[in-house]
Design brief:
Layout lengths: L7 E3 L5 H10 L7 E5 L5 H8 L3 E5 L10 H7 L4 E4 L11 H11 L2 E4 L10 H17 L19 E4 L5 H13 L25 H9 E4 L7 H14 L4
Parallel strand pairs: 1-5, 2-3, 2-4, 4-5
Antiparallel strand pairs: 6-7
Helix pairs in contact: 1-2, 5-8
Length: 242
């Protein structure tokens, strides 16, 4: 796919090495800036630094957890050379809007490919979606994952938001679930822009909020309906306690 003077490239996978190769093949390096998310894996920012360029962190849409096109547009400068969106937890990044922005500004758009370069089995995806639909309908007191209309959400993670006072309540909620036999995980314990290798003065309020109050519940293909019901019951029992 061709944009205004630059190419839309799909990296073979989302590792820093693969993304670096894609950036270098587009001629991106020293003196260039590349807009990346801070909520999610560190590979995009790592790849930008490995290519010799500077990562610039943009904020996210707090519903999808993916890059906000408005935040990306606000981060474009004369040095911006590319955008590296990430499909977070299986929700696709807003590629139509980002492609339009890249075309208008003459930027490269480097999109991650399938994890490990391999497409997932359709049956696995269907089971995760079925599990997600059940939890969507059964959970009370937490904010269930959002999917944009028409988006093909893969639910690699089923990530809810815990209302309350951010990280303390989220961590207490996770601990209470663990005591009930439910193993929930914090998928992004530290946003990338706060990691030592990439620490910056970026102001990313939505990234900070979502990192503080989000928690991922199990929806792997092998989970049983009984286990899903137990997860929902355990979460709902905590709704009024935190």
């Amino acid at each position: 796919m061709t944009t205004a003077g630059r190419r839309h490239r799909i990296a073979s996978d989302a590792t820093a090495a693969a993304l670096r190769v894609s950036l270098q093949e587009l001629g991106i390096g020293a003196g260039d800036e590349v807009i990346v998310p801070s909520f999610g894996p560190g590979a995009p920012a790592d790849a930008v630094r490995l290519a010799g360029a500077t990562p610039v962190f943009a904020d996210i849409d707090p519903r999808t957890f993916c890059l906000s096109p408005e935040a990306v547009a606000a981060g474009v400068t004369a040095r911006t050379a590319a955008i590296v969106p990430v499909h977070v937890f299986g929700h696709p990044a807003p590629m139509a809007q980002l492609t339009e922005l890249a075309s208008r500004c003459g930027l490269a758009l480097v999109e991650e490919g399938a994890e490990g370069g391999v497409e997932e089995d359709a049956g696995v995806i269907a089971r995760r979606r079925a599990h997600a639909r059940f939890l969507d309908s059964a959970l009370k007191g937490v904010v269930v994952p959002y999917a944009e209309p028409g988006a093909r959400h893969l639910y690699r993670q089923y990530t809810v938001r815990i209302p309350g006072n951010g990280r303390p309540d989220r961590d207490a909620f996770a601990g209470a679930l663990a005591s009930r036999g439910v193993r929930a995980t914090v998928s992004v314990p530290v946003p990338v822009h706060r990691m030592p290798a990439h620490r910056s003065g970026a102001v990313l309020p939505q990234t900070e909020l979502v990192a503080a109050d989000s928690l991922s519940l199990p929806v792997h293909p092998g989970i049983t309906q009984r286990e899903l019901t137990h997860i929902a019951d355990a979460c709902n029992a905590l709704g009024g306690l935190l």
